[in-house]
Design a protein that fits this description.
InterPro entries: DUF4193 (IPR025242). The chain contains one helix and four strands. By secondary structure, it is mostly beta strands.
Length: 96
């Protein structure tokens, strides 16, 4: 059976009134506030917040045998990404 996708698609459910639709939508002015955010349970820190009392533990690995630091972008790359050596040091393919 052929379907005309340009024809308007109306069913009996589409004929609901605006008032019925408004009843299904929660009132935004209600006093119920979701305090706990499920995606971010620790809260949200604003940019520029004072984080001086926090201690961060970061493990810094020494340079590996198959890595180099690009003298142009200062990113650590794999040796397969070396394009050429300059007077300042190795340059990666993306910077050359």
């Amino acid at each position: 059976m052929a379907t005309d996708y340009d024809a308007p698609r109306k069913t009996e459910d589409d004929s609901e009134s605006i008032e019925a639709l408004k009843e299904r939508v929660p009132d935004k002015m209600s006093g119920a506030v979701d305090v706990e955010d499920a995606d971010n349970p620790s809260g949200f820190e604003l940019p520029g917040a004072d984080l001086s009392d926090l201690d961060l533990d970061v493990v810094v690995l020494p340079p590996q045998q198959d890595e180099f630091t690009c003298a142009s972008c200062f990113l650590v790359k794999h040796r397969s990404q070396v394009d050429h050596d300059s007077t300042d040091g190795p340059i990666c393919r993306e910077c050359s």
